[in-house]
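Re-run with default settings, no changes from the original entry. Doing this only to confirm the output is reproducible before filing.
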Amino acid sequence: MIPPDAGLDENSFYNFGYLNEVTKRMLRRAILKAVSVPGFQVPIAGHEMPLPPGWGTGGMQISAALIGRADMLKVIDQGADDSINATSIRRFFERVADSRTTLSTSEATIIQTRHRIPDEQLSDGQIIVLQVPLPEPMRSLEPSDAVTRRLHAFQDYGMLYVRLYEDTVKFGDAGAGTNHPVLVNGRYFAAPSPIPAFDNHKLDSSPALFLFGAGRHRRIYAIPPHTCVANLSFDDRPIVTRKPDGQCSLCGSTESYLDVISDDTGMSSFVCSDTSFCSAQRSGESTGGRP
């Protein structure tokens, strides 16, 4: 899964994967620790990447440490392959790692994503790298890192349940938002990145390896394949995740997560957030999408 050091290409101005080999070894050790302790936030050193923090530097560091010449890379931003951020990151790795890239979820071995998990069924051997702006699920409730680390150590998550109760009383449910905390392997609560709560079930017992990178906060954590993941909820009131009601105006899908778009006349319609899934549906391919 982790490629051997590739070294400096003879005709390149960059080390393979952009990062130097010492840095990549450090990141790989952190990733191995994160996989060994699912949901635990492993500290890493911060490294400069050629884009501002907050635009995916944490995910790019993980991808740079893992990518090899045999890998096929896919980059998506909020489900789209053709956004400026996704296109820029994809071109970056094409240049510094001479990597093959794809727009197909099923063909990719490494999928770097922000704000979404692909709607297509993932498979064994795939690595999903998620960019996380805020890795600590209790940060909005407790500003001190020392305190949140102690709360994780004692598995004291009372403030999360109080917040869940307040949201339930105020809004009726807590399944319509994003970044809803998840319990990983029955031990640590983790932030699943700002993905919609509709995507959280894709983390549970998935055959793929999920790696979460927070560049600004210098943290890495992981959800290994086939790991039990559960939403933060009360035993007698499980959250009900929601998505916009309707169907995609392009492919007709009612299974995928939908975005709302408006034309010049003000008319609104739905389209699949996952552009690769939508394209495959229109071409008649079997994508193995989830209901």
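Confidence is low (pLDDT under 50) at residues 1-10. The chain has six helices and twelve strands.
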